[in-house]
Amino acid sequence: MTRAPSIHDPLARAFAEGHRVAIPDLMSDASFAIDGRATPAAVLIAVTDVAHDPQVILTQRPRAMRDHPGQVAFPGGKIDPGEDAITAALREAEEELALPRDAVRVIGATDTYHTGTGFIITPVLGVVPPGLTLSPNPTEVEAWFEAPLAMLLDPTSWTTNEVFWRGANRRYLELEWQGFRIWGVTAAIIANLSRRIALEGLRDAA
Asked: How far apart are CA 153 and CA 117, in angstroms?
């Protein structure tokens, strides 16, 4: 039996190639973090292993949460003492979605993102089998869904908006997908990743 093409190796190659040089003007909200917090956190960018149309697993946070209520997010959270970013991202994905950590083929950690609410987030890119049975923890996840990786990495998919916040204009990206609004921190992390991964190279590998 012929094995279905995997996105892992093309994605890993594109990831490594895109991180060979520094990019000085990545998106950040560090200038808006006025309360002095700098809490380390990590998120998992889980890409389903379908070469022709890989998806990214996203969650919607409960509206009662203190930080970023109701927003679309990657599974993730604070880095506990003794953990690195990869360990924390895998643990949080397991706690939030029952996504088995041993099902994730980790590619690597990408650029940190400093939020206006005082978190320094390390995104961790990994590949997971398609069709996983996920079970959201209702205290941390209101809903979960998948969005096409190619759409997320394509700059033309996004609308750029601006709002006056904490005494300055803040630029942010926004995308509507199947009734979900992807914006804010999650959109910025995706935008930064899109500058590290050449979308055309992934399309050629499909």
From this structure: 25
Averaged in consecutive runs of 10 residues, what is the pLDDT profile of the chain (206 residues)? 77 95 90 78 97 94 66 95 97 98 98 91 98 94 96 95 70 93 96 92 62
Q: How far apart are CA 101 and CA 42, in angstroms?
A: 14
DSSP state of 90: H
Q: Helix-strand-coil percent breakdown of the chain, rounded to 5?
A: 25, 30, 40
The domains located in the chain, with CATH, are 8-198 (3.90.79.10)
Alpha carbon distance 193, 153 (integer Å):
8
Answer whether 0.85 is exceeded by the pTM: yes
Query: What's the rounded Cα separation, in Å, for the pair 46 and 32?
Result: 28
